[in-house]
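To the wet lab folks,

You asked to see what we're planning to order before we commit. Fair enough. Below is the target structure as tokens, and below that is the sequence we designed to fit it. If anything looks off to you, flag it before the synthesis order goes out.
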């Protein structure tokens, strides 16, 4: 027989029991991370994969704990302002971004939403941080500040290809790699080389730049970092391969696209480390209290497949020093 007294008690407690799981295990809302890049989805894919890996290490699960809302200017700097406005209108909890121009656009539009950058060159000079140790405001992150990086690349190029006498420097005005042009020009006489900087402002400038380099008799290339350059890295890598002229390219992703060799801070490592900033900020830390960090991982990457196709062998000494060899 059914015990009516127990049944009544059970029915009375049922609503309380049903609510207990929700009380015991409150569900955190999904945090929205707005990502703005001057590059393309394809160019930024490996960077975001590294960021997601860093978040997973800190026990954040995409789709459950956070979601990424991404916007890409695809090498068109004029598009950044509109994309920034779109992201801010979606009310993200935090903004993740890349280089100086994008940082500046976001910093002009919000003084409250936290901004974490991954490959800034000079946040203090840009005016978004009071200092590296204590940035203040709503902006912090990681730089690619590397003193004399342009000169170091020139030195490597000359070491690996000692017969190189005239290098063309492909650069993008105002972009991340622009300051390196001066370093390269200043270092060239010490390497007994001369250099000719050539601007790339849009994809249509690539072919004329290579034709001009050939007319000048250039026997080497140094490719710097920039929105257009990074977005067009496959086209530039393919054109370098056809030219059969030695080149040092700006990052490991460029080497993976077919660039002969690269020496640079690891952008992927910076994106992975950026997850630490995001974790702290989403847990209550103020961006202005988190010191801006410099790169800790530099990589020399050689593309042996490209070297073979170009008929340009790497010296054994440089192969032994490489952090990574693409075969």
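Sequence we intend to order:
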């Amino acid at each position: 027989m059914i015990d009516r007294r127990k049944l009544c008690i059970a029915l009375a407690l049922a609503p309380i029991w049903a609510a207990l799981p929700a009380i015991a295990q409150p569900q955190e809302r999904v945090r929205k991370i707005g990502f703005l890049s001057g590059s393309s989805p394809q160019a930024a894919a490996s960077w975001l994969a590294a960021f997601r890996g860093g978040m997973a290490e800190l026990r954040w699960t995409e789709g459950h704990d956070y979601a990424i809302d991404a916007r890409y200017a695809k090498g068109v700097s004029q598009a950044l302002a509109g994309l920034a406005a779109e992201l801010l209108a979606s009310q993200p909890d935090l903004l993740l971004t890349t280089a100086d121009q994008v940082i500046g656009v976001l910093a002009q539009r919000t003084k409250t939403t936290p901004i974490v950058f991954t490959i800034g060159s000079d946040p203090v000079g840009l005016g978004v941080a009071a200092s590296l140790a204590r940035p203040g405001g709503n902006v912090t992150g990681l730089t690619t500040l590397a003193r004399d990086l342009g000169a170091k690349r020139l030195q490597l190029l000359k070491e690996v290809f000692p017969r190189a006498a005239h290098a063309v420097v492909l650069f993008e005005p105002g972009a991340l790699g622009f300051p390196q042009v001066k370093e390269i020009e200043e270092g060239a006489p010490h390497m007994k080389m001369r250099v000719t900087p050539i601007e790339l402002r849009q994809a249509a400038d690539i072919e004329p730049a290579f034709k001009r380099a050939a007319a000048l008799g250039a026997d080497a290339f140094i490719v710097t970092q920039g929105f257009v350059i990074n977005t067009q890295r496959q086209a530039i890598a393919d054109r370098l391969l056809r030219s059969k002229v030695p080149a040092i390219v700006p990052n490991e992703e460029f080497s993976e696209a077919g660039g002969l060799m690269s020496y640079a801070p690891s952008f992927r490592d910076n994106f992975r480390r950026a997850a630490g900033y995001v974790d702290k900020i989403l847990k209550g830390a103020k961006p202005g209290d988190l010191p801006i960090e410099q790169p800790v991982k530099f990589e020399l990457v050689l593309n042996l497949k490209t070297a073979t196709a170009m008929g340009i062998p790497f010296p054994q000494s440089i192969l032994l020093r490489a952090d990574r060899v693409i075969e």
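Structural context that might help your review: Residues 214 and 243 are 9 Å apart (CA to CA). The chain has 14 helices and twelve strands.

Thanks,
Computational group
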